[in-house]
Design brief:
eight-stranded antiparallel beta sheet, 2 domains, disordered N terminus, 420 residues, 11 helices, 26% helix, alpha+beta, Beta-lactamase, three-stranded mixed beta sheet, 19 strands
């Protein structure tokens, strides 16, 4: 048999009928990895109770321990009206879970010696070399002043650049510039042009002084494009998606996969469960199929499956590699998964380069481990990696707005199922 060598794709492959097949994560019984299968049945009951109460339409949950999948289940419906059942390979809008992939892309460029995360981002995106901040006065008015220092790439990675998803103090300025909300899929301009406008606007806080969640990772996406000379879509494919065989992860859905895209539902006390309308915007089905297909949002743009995203998470859990394919060095992953901002984030938690970090288990108040890290997405997806337990969890639903605590109940049941 001829050994096939593919640059950047050092996957473990087999030849079957002339078709290259990537190695999947092995599937085992929960007991083989120290988990009680009987106790895990509580997860099935909890999710099915939520479905019966019409809190959401459906979900897919995948969990691994030691790189082995011990739980992967689909529940409910991908589309209620079309009577389309949720499948393990259903495709979800993962929104802010895109941020971790963009953050890894920045670290890849640092390893290549093309940037340094402690540099001013203005070295590459000139509009951020000298930025301004809107300082609110006691009488409710504001003054636009120069930022106290330059925004660094690390500020963007940790959301301490002072850049929100809008600036409520000077909202009219942001609105006039056509900036608002995290949704980019309907934009007819490349993301670089959107980010160029953001750089000219007054920010919410001075760099390094507060944790402000917003467009920071979209700016990093534009940085990746400028430094690499590639579109963000192409960079992701070359350095992350194809090496990890994340075959169903896209900014915009290929037409032959439309029947696997899950439908967005909302849930409010007034309306109960309802189907989100078609069209553009944050609380709709979005323009992931129909639309310009030109704006690649590094902060919230991707579609994916639990299978694909678990492969990405497993790469991080393994210290930067999966099945012999190395995406990052172990030392880069180590730097990403430690706190960088001290007490600027939530009690019991810190923030690394792309995700939150559990620092104090007692203050955090949740079952888990110190140094656990993770994040989620606006359509009600979530993930975490627990290095102490060699555990990876991916939970995906499609809710906008969301009204469910199901993932927190999955967490408590999971940690209650340990028998080793």
């Amino acid at each position: 048999m001829k050994i096939v060598s593919i640059p950047h794709l050092l996957l473990i492959l087999s030849l079957t009928g002339g078709v290259l097949v990537a190695k999947e994560l092995p599937t085992v019984t929960p007991e083989e990895v120290g988990i009680s299968s009987e106790h895990l049945q509580h997860i099935d009951r909890i999710i099915n109770d939520y479905l019966e109460d019409e809190k959401f339409a459906g979900a897919v949950i995948q969990m691994t321990r030691g790189g082995k999948t011990f739980y992967h289940e689909a529940f409910g419906y991908a589309d209620i009206e079309d009577n389309r059942k949720m499948q393990k390979d259903s495709i979800f809008r993962i929104a802010s879970q895109t941020k971790a992939i963009t953050s890894v892309s920045v670290m890849i460029l640092q390893e290549q010696g093309k940037l340094h995360i402690n540099e001013p981002v203005g070295n590459y995106l000139p509009e951020f070399m000298e930025t301004t901040v809107s300082e609110k006065r006691e009488d409710g008015t504001y003054e636009i002043v120069p930022a106290k220092r330059k925004i660094t790439i690390r500020d963007l990675l940790t959301h301490t650049a002072g850049i929100g998803y809008s600036n409520s103090v000077v909202s009219e300025i942001w609105e006039e510039a056509g900036i608002g909300g995290w949704y980019f899929a309907d934009r007819e301009e490349p993301v670089r042009e959107t980010i160029r406008r953001i750089g000219s606007l007054p920010m919410s806080e001075h760099p390094g002084e507060k944790w402000v969640y917003g467009y920071a990772t979209d700016i990093l996406g534009a940085l990746v494009e400028v430094v690499s000379g590639m579109s963000l879509d192409a960079f992701f494919k070359k350095y992350i998606l194809e090496p990890l065989d994340m075959k169903d992860t896209h900014f915009y859905l290929p037409l032959d996969k439309v029947d696997r895209l899950t439908t967005v539902y909302g849930n409010t006390d007034e309306k109960g469960l309802f189907r989100a309308p078609d069209g553009a915007g944050m609380n709709t089905q979005g323009n992931y199929v129909e639309g310009p297909r030109v704006s690649f949002s590094g902060g919230a743009g991707l579609l994916s499956t639990t299978r694909d995203y678990t492969r990405f998470l497993q790469m991080l859990a393994n210290g930067g590699e999966l099945h012999g394919t190395r995406v990052l060095s172990r030392k880069s992953v180590d730097l990403m998964r430690v706190d960088h901002i001290g007490d600027l984030y939530r009690p019991g938690e810190g923030h690394g380069l792309g995700f939150r970090i559990t620092e104090n288990l007692g203050i955090h108040g949740k079952l888990g481990s110190v140094e656990e890290y993770g994040w989620g997405g606006a359509y009600h997806t979530t993930y975490w990696i627990d290095p102490a337990e060699d555990l990876v969890v991916s939970i995906m639903m499609q809710m906008r707005p969301a009204n469910s605590s199901a993932s927190e109940y999955v967490r408590v049941v999971l940690y209650g199922a340990f028998i080793d």
